Amino acid sequence: MIGKLNHVAIAVRDLGKATAVYRDVLGAQVSDAVPQPDHGVTTVFITLPNTKIELLEPLGEGSPIAKFLERNQDGGMHHLCYEVEDIIAARDAQVEHHKLQQESLKAFHIAGVNVDQQHGSRFASSSFALGGELARVDINVGLNAERTECTLNGLYMTGGRQHVDHHTRIDHTKPHGKSREFYKGILTGASRAVFNGKVVVHPDAQQTDANQSNRNLLLSENAEVDTKPQLEIYADDVKCSHGATVGQLDADQIYYLRSRGVDDISARALLTFAFAKDVVERLSLAPLRSRLEKLLLGQLPEQVKELL
Prior knowledge:
This protein is α/β, with parallel strands linked by helices. The protein has 6 helices and 18 strands.
């Protein structure tokens, strides 16, 4: 079920003129213009009492909105962003929910997903958080019938002073349920991330099989992550595990690459790429997987791309 409107994105040819209309004529609150070279746009957010408007202006050659403006000379609505609140996976259904968050670095993004699984259903979620000054996603899944399966995968990459939260909860309420949760984070600058994952095995949920993992890579001294994987088990015939790691790039792996003629910057970039790609490869949606791989490759030095 689709929830409330998050924001409306409007493509414009002249960001300055469009911004002036909202600020000077309508008296709306207007953010600074923020270039997004990786996305090929410059963005401005307009805050209104009941929603937000994101103004998009092409930036550089090959901007993804250039063709849209060719077809719509006066500009126009480019996309809508709704929040998905509730997903009901009926008996034996297979449901996939993929989320790529690439908001402006001035944007606040808060969203949640509630999932109700019925007998024999399978639910898979992939959450990728790359943008936003402050972002939070809550995912709550109820395995409310026998022989249900749930998979939650996620990757967050932060820099500057970004703050990104992921809060998940999986409730096993019936027997023979299976859940897998795998989240990774890469942090640079003075950014911060929070992972709070909770798995609750209720008294009737015998034969539950649950595994949860959160791994984090800190690439700067001021980056910080708070990770809290949790297990609450009220049944006695279960197989459950959880774990979390926080660390830096492996010095031995860097040394190995250096000994093979790879310079220090390229070695670090290559190892970071491999760390992130582990989550991207789990995506079943090929177009999104391809887009994410291109985004990751775009952050690598040219000499590293030649090695892949």
